[in-house]
Design goal:
alpha/beta; 6-stranded mixed beta sheet; 5-stranded antiparallel beta sheet
């Protein structure tokens, strides 16, 4: 994404935006725009479109009869300075050689207003003071400040969309509402001058990749109806041939995404990296599982073809999926009744504000993806590392802590206060279920890691831990006394002063060698080791 390094795009008095500049402080591979209805998400897509196709849109967008202002931001680099501060020129109000003076402005942030009509120059400002004699040079540099969006192609899917039967058309174009999709598919299938494998093999394969395991399509076909219209059909082993018109809106949404990302570049003879995709509310009529698979596909395809996308959504799932991803950003759009504001979410606090704005409650989400219950932070230190090592040995991706799973501490004896089932029979009989804390309200996917606390091979595991084992989704008792007993003799000696036997206590070993118990320092010592 070097092309967009240092680039920013802002608008003032544009549609729902007021005098305070709002927009994109940066552009990443996947730009997710989240917020309530009618806050300004679609206006941000219009802003992107204007930066690509300025004279098609800008003159017709006004707010309270105030002329909108759209600005791009970039840094003065050495190439711009060398091109517009002449070498070997001196004199005037600039002291010394003009090229030498220009280099003092290297890295300065420049703001350039995009011109309101063709043939006009946009105004510029610089975040660094400069002498009057440099204005002419800087004005020329401003004209050539790179706008990495300029010259790209803009492809949009609107929130209201459909794929319907269509008659023959010479114009093979795709509208944002889905009009033209049927003709494009049938032409690629039936016209020998088009690569039919792009639809029948590539698109179908990617469709199955997103839809699986819910559906698996064996063929995509186009046939004329009795009304002389083209209709798209999908063959599925279990169901036979089904008309797309009889399928759900979610399937049509996925097909439109695939047509935009796979077929449009081939249709117009452009490289996929030349495209900026703008998708509105893809989650409409999509199961949450399909939402995640579709967004993951988009992210992976964008990286594969070096394209970028802007996606508007109300779906809280994007916060979970992309808040920790370097090639994606989440922008939260709000509206105070007067104007819209845009803020990049950069942490859990901002993420919580998005959930609040969407009126998503913890009880609506029901549960986290999965919780690993541990006795204390020492267990977390070891488990994190063991998970990494295991995934490396299997050449598998390491699950993301905080989204795919999370650790929670039960604190030793406090395990007896947690209920990992709706209610245990013994507790119901004794009345103890009334005071147990329901662990499943946090997540139904619970895994409990427990020290066996055995002092010898014949020791028994206590009733509390057996109850937790029987009720949780999964559990693990250490074979030795504690989790530390799994450490190799060399590591244990480094951490605790001596190797640990199977039923040794790590704390007692440390105390015997060092002369004191480490209690609260235990986790810090283990983490450093």
């Amino acid at each position: 994404m070097e092309r967009f390094a240092g680039f920013a795009l802002y608008a003032q008095d544009f549609k729902c935006f007021g005098a305070d500049p709002q927009g994109f402080n940066e552009v990443r591979r996947l730009n997710l725009i989240i917020g309530r209805n009618n806050t300004g998400k679609s206006a941000l897509l219009d802003l992107v479109r204007f930066a690509i196709e300025p004279y098609d849109l800008f003159p017709y967008s006004h707010r309270h009869k105030i002329q909108p202002v759209v600005s791009i931001y970039g840094n003065l680099d050495e190439k711009l300075i060398q091109a517009h501060f002449p070498d070997g020129t001196s004199g005037g109000s600039i002291t010394g050689p003009h090229r030498t003076y220009g280099m003092t402005l290297l890295g300065a942030r420049m703001r350039v207003e995009l011109p309101r009509s063709e043939g006009r120059d946009g105004r510029f400002t610089l975040d660094k003071e400069y002498v009057d004699g440099a204005r002419g040079y800087l004005g020329e540099a401003a004209k050539h400040l790179p706008n990495p969006l300029n010259g790209l192609r803009f492809a949009r899917i609107a929130a209201e969309r459909d794929i319907v039967a269509e008659g023959d058309s010479v114009d093979l174009s795709l509208k944002s509402d889905g009009a033209g999709a049927t003709n494009i598919i049938q032409r690629f299938i039936n016209d020998e001058r088009r690569p039919n494998e792009l639809i029948e093999d590539v698109l179908r394969s990617d469709l199955n990749r997103i839809m699986g395991p819910d559906a698996n399509f064996t063929k995509i076909a186009a046939q004329r109806t009795a009304d002389n219209l083209w209709m798209i059909y999908l063959d599925e082993r279990a169901k036979g041939r089904i008309a797309l018109a009889d399928s759900g809106s979610g399937l049509k949404t996925i097909l439109l995404v695939l047509i935009n990302m796979l077929v449009l570049p081939e249709l117009v003879g452009r490289d996929p990296s030349d495209y900026v995709f703008a998708f509105e509310e893809l989650e409409n009529n999509l199961h949450p599982g399909l939402q995640r698979r579709l967004l993951k596909y988009i992210q992976e395809k964008l990286a594969e073809v070096s394209a970028i996308a802007f996606v508007t959504t109300h779906a809280p799932a994007v916060i979970d999926m992309f808040s920790r991803t370097d090639d994606a950003q989440i922008l939260h759009v709000t509206h105070d009744g007067q104007a819209a504001q845009v803020r990049q979410t950069a942490g859990s606090t901002e993420g919580h504000s998005v959930l609040n704005d969407l009126d998503v409650r913890a009880s609506d989400l029901l549960q986290a993806n999965g919780i690993v219950w541990v006795e204390g932070i020492s267990d977390v230190i070891y488990l994190r590392r063991w998970i990494e090592l295991y995934c490396e040995s299997k050449n598998a991706l390491v699950p993301v802590e905080g989204s795919e799973y999370a650790f929670m501490e039960y604190g030793g004896r406090c395990l007896s206060h947690l209920d990992f089932a709706a209610a245990c029979a013994d507790d119901l009989a004794t009345g103890d279920a009334e005071w147990l804390l329901p662990a499943l309200s946090v997540s139904r996917n619970t895994y409990v890691v427990m020290d066996s606390d055995k002092r010898g091979g014949n020791s028994m595991i206590n009733k509390t831990k057996l109850r937790a084992k029987s009720a949780a989704s999964g559990s693990w008792f250490t074979e030795g006394r504690e989790v530390e007993n799994y450490l190799s003799p060399e590591v244990a000696e480094t951490v605790f002063g001596r190797a640990l036997k199977q039923y040794d206590s790590a704390a007692e070993a440390y105390a015997a060698c060092k002369g004191n118990r480490f209690d609260t320092k235990k986790a810090a010592i283990e983490a450093k080791s």
